[in-house]
Write a structure and sequence with these properties.
With 214 residues, this protein is an alpha+beta fold. It is built from five helices and eleven strands, in the order ββββααββααβαββββ. The strands form four sheets. Strands 9-8-7-10 form a four-stranded mixed sheet, covered by helices on one side. It has a three-stranded antiparallel sheet with strand order 1-4-11, with no helix packed on it. The radius of gyration is 16 Å and the shape is globular.
Length: 214
């Protein structure tokens, strides 16, 4: 886990032309997206379309991701961050818990930028797998240069599920995705780009990474 310092980030949405500032507390973030071997150790499952221990796990829903976070917390003797309902779709986040969780989109963008202010934290071909260099496939984590804080694959390879609801009034329960994927054009692989998907959907370019508070 990599220490992410506190800071302030400006989020923006192209659809609504809205921007807003968020203060971000310090946290610890996994240096890599969750891999297939890591996911299998915790859940006993290998849901991905492409197979490889060091490939990012994909084909996982937002619900799969929060369940993974709780299961890994229990394995490590930590307090799970999420209270999952026996029925229904409402998940509660216990902000006082010390277990693993998904990043908020503000935490994600702050961590992705690593103190930079441009659209990316480096030259895209050096830091990300995307349509122009991925040869039509997903790649092992850690194959490109990390950002200044030691975080790999923040852009490209797989989109990352975040905790946040995208826009409840317009899209209901849809959750935020960040980072771009291996099949995306360069314009999708930018620190500010927001995508959305239903929390039950499983896509072959969507994975996740985990954080801990404090």
């Amino acid at each position: 886990m990599v220490a992410v310092p506190p800071g302030r980030v400006t989020l923006s949405d192209r659809r609504t032309q809205r921007s807003w500032q968020v203060d971000v507390a310090p946290c610890r973030m996994a240096a890599f997206p969750v891999t297939q071997s890591w996911y299998a150790r915790v859940t006993g499952e290998r849901p991905s379309t492409s197979r490889g221990d060091r490939l990012p796990v994909e084909g996982v829903s937002w619900w799969d991701a929060v369940r993974f976070c709780n299961a890994w917390s229990v394995r490590d003797g930590l307090t799970p961050a999420y209270r999952l309902p026996a029925e229904g779709e409402h998940v509660e986040w216990d902000a006082a818990a010390d277990g693993y969780r998904l990043p908020t989109e503000a935490e994600w963008e702050h961590a992705c930028r690593a103190g930079t202010t441009g659209p990316r934290h480096g030259e895209l071909d050096e830091i990300a797998w995307y349509r122009d260099n991925a040869n039509g496939r997903i790649h092992d984590v850690g194959g490109k240069r990390p950002n200044a804080w030691g975080l790999y694959d923040m852009l490209g390879n797989v989109w990352n599920w975040c905790w946040d609801v995208y826009d409840a009034e317009v899209y209901g329960a849809y959750r935020v995705l960040r980072g771009g994927g291996w099949f995306d054009e360069h314009w999708s692989c930018r620190a500010s780009v927001r995508r959305r998907s239903h929390p039950t959907f499983r896509l072959d370019d969507v994975g996740f990474r985990v954080v801990r508070s404090g």
